[in-house]
Amino acid sequence: MEVLMPPPQIYVERTLALIKPDIVDKEEEIEDIILKSGFTIVQRRKLRFSPEQCSNFYVEQYGKMFFPNLTAYMSSGPLVAMILARHNAISYWLDLMGPFNSFKAKETHPDSLRAIYGTDDLRNALHGSKNFAAAEREIRFMFPEVIIEPIPIGGAAKDYLNMYVNPTLLAGLSELCKHKPADPFIWLADWLLKNNPNKPRFCHQQDTVEESNENKTH
């Protein structure tokens, strides 16, 4: 019996997490919870916001009644910034934190981090990016050296192009010139599908099990 083995398609999402100034002394136990919840801490740094930096980071909240208190709170001491990664990292981190208001978190989500470490509607212990756009902006703000998207062609990506993509295209175009089909676009598309160097390979079920067991040992 032959089994089709498709390559794994796993998208790893990233989000920004902040441990706020009043609970920085709890960073080790919070990071332990984060790791046990399936996240990878890609990068971390401890820093202190100036009021101006705080205003720039929370620019979307500018003009709201609580904004002066927020900037004063977030610039009152050091904080820990982390890039967290896992599948659906943004939504998982938001769920793990719980409701924004710590009072509500204690009532409705007593096991959430904000219920455990937060003290009121402002001092809610932690921050997380609310969506993909916010995550990208906030990660760049805290870690300006980090490459998010687009990833420039270089290193492994360049090697992949040189080893697989370019030779395959060259071979396909050479065959196209030899055959001179009536519809060259359809012909080339079909040829590329048949000659894709990364197409799923067929293997015997026994081989699949053995490879799976072997992979577990690495």
Strand content: 15-25%
Structural class given helices, strands, pairing?
alpha+beta
**Stretches where pLDDT falls below 50 for ≥5 residues?**
150-157, 200-218
Count of structural domains: 2
**The CATH topology of the largest domain, please?**
Alpha-Beta Plaits
Q: Distance N terminus to C terminus?
A: 27 Å
Number of strands: 6
Shape by Cα distribution: elongated
What's the helix count? 10
**Given this structure, which CATH class of the largest domain is correct?**
Alpha Beta
**CATH homology superfamily of the largest domain:** Nucleoside diphosphate kinase-like domain
Radius of gyration (Å) = 25 Å
User: SSE order in H/E notation?
Assistant: EEHEHHEHHHEHHHEH
Domain Nucleoside diphosphate kinase-like: 12-150
Keywords: Cell projection, Cilium, Cytoplasm, Cytoskeleton, Developmental protein, Differentiation, Flagellum, Hydrolase, Spermatogenesis
Protein name: Nucleoside diphosphate kinase homolog 5
GO molecular function: 3'-5'-DNA exonuclease activity; nucleoside diphosphate kinase activity
Structure characterization notes:
It contains 10 helices and 6 strands. It has helices spanning 27-36, 51-57, 67-74, 89-97, 102-108, 113-117, 132-142, 156-179, 184-194, 205-216; strands at 2-5, 13-19, 40-47, 79-86, 126-128, 201-204. The model is unreliable at 150-157 and 200-218 (pLDDT under 50). The protein has 218 residues and is of the alpha+beta class. The protein has 2 domains: 13-142, Nucleoside diphosphate kinase-like domain (Alpha-Beta Plaits); 152-216, no CATH class. One of its GO terms (cellular component) is extracellular region. InterPro entries: Dpy-30_motif, NDK-like_dom, NDK-like_dom_sf, NDK_H5, Nucleoside_diP_kinase. Keywords: Cell projection, Cilium, Cytoplasm, Cytoskeleton, Developmental protein, Differentiation, Flagellum, Hydrolase, Spermatogenesis.
